[in-house]
Structure formats: structure tokens, C-alpha cells
Amino acid sequence: MLDKLNELCSGAELILCTLPKSNLYSAARQTEFNGIINNIAKDYSLKVITLDKVDLVPHLIDSAHPGTSGMTALANQIIKDLLN
Description:
mainly alpha
């Protein structure tokens, strides 16, 4: 998929995001998935936004979707990582 994105969007900077803490998966699965994301980013020399630092659990409006405070927490982490 990343190869296709690079082809379709040549010249665009692709950035991957790790998964935030959530009720949708266990901490062990989050660690596993984020490891895969980081490995792919390394293979493609891509920047990674570290959303695993964000705990969405207290910000969910249902079992999966963040409310305004959760979206703010995600946005703040994205901005922080993009500025570094």
C-alpha cells in the first residue's frame, strides 16, 4: 500500500501514526501493532507520530470514538511530533 501511495502521491511526505491507548485492543496488542508500524516506517524511512503516548480511554464517547477532548489530545500530540 505504501508503494502505491508513493506512486500516486509522488513528492508527498507520508507519515505513519502509532495507535493510541484504547479499549479496542489490549496493551500487548497495541505494543505489537505499534512495533509493526515502527518497523514499516523504518523500512520506508518515514516519520512516525507517536500516538501511543495518548490515552483515549477517558475521552471515548462510545467504545471506539474519541470526543472533542480525545481529538484535542490526538491533535496536540500530532502537532508536538510534527514540530520536532
